[in-house]
Amino acid sequence: MATFGLADILGSDEAKTASRHIDVVELWSGCFSVGRAALARGFTAVPFDKYRIPGTTDVEGEFCEDLVTQSGFSKAVSTVLAVRPNGLLVMAPTCSSFGFPNSSRCKRTHDNPWGDMSYDKVQQGNKEFQACERLTLLGIARGLFVVLENPPRSWLWTLMNPALDGYEVSEVTVHRCAYDDTAPGERFYKPYKFLAVSTQAVEKIQHLCGRCTCPSVLRNGHLQKHIRLMPDNAKGKKCGRPDRLGAAAAYPPRLGEALLLAWLDRPSSALQNEASQVSQVSLVSRCRVSASQVSEASQVSRRRVSEASQVSPVSEVDDVSEESECPPSDSGDAADAIEPASEPSIDGSADEGPFEPPAEAVDDDSN
Ligand SMILES: [Zn+2]
Hints:
Blueprint: H1 6-10, H2 13-17, E1 22-27, H3 33-40, E2 45-48, H4 70-81, E3 83-91, H5 103-106, H6 120-141, E4 145-150, H7 155-164, E5 168-175, E6 187-188, E7 191-197, H8 199-204, E8 217-219, E9 222-224, E10 226-227, H9 242-249, H10 253-263, H11 270-278, H12 291-298, E11 301-304
Parallel strand pairs: 1-2, 1-3, 3-4, 6-10
Antiparallel strand pairs: 4-7, 5-7, 5-11, 8-9
Helix pairs in contact: 3-10, 4-6
The structure holds zinc ion (ZN).
């Protein structure tokens, strides 16, 4: 990990002379869903991910995009310095050591959120957290719209709390399936929590509001709403399927678009697509909830970060139904039976955001 002196970086010649031409940067960009949505609208967007090949996936050196290496972190700092004021910085550190799957080996607890540091996956997760924390502070200092993403009860949030204390933050949890255009019954149920920091960001992030409205459908002879990420094994214990967990970590294109639109202070188009699909498939009897319950379920909390310490991260003995796994098909839980909200469709094709896209189409360097 590179030595990090925020004041030194902010006072450096590089910081003072940076061109600040980038609109959107995704760190741990994966499939680059947010950036792709930005490019499609003419913004300059830059991906950054160690699996992306640049130094060849990825090794120390000029092109490295591994954020836990010296050169990769330095390149990330330079990239963030080149983002324009009010530009979008999205970070989604690897959650595998922070969530329920593998929690019995990672051993993160309230007394020791740093976990078992003799375990290599914990060491890696902690290094990624440190990079994320530092780049978050840099992004805030540079006046960016900073958004972090991890599972709702990830230990990342606990670790991040001290750094964000005193900043105004807002968080929202959305369900992957609300943005997934695959057929009902074939989607993954995965909640993502997004946390935005800085005064302008806390208002806009509230445009993200997609919640599961999937119907139960007949699949392989039984009713189900989703493909299970952690099906029961022969012993009746939940067992993560790496292929499914990996696939579910990738944002569907409409979720990337929704986050971009939030930055542009525009509502997203998650829910009404679900509403149309619900009417097209055979449904089991479902509990209906009132409009007020829908509002409550979609509500985001706006708070000072000091309150975040009251949120309990997942532990190995916690119920995982809201963390990383599909709720049971016959669940009567209100959150599992939310009726889709009736919001107007926004296709985003004529965005009028805070920044005018450049006349030229896209940044060829960014992909
Ligand atoms: Zn769903």
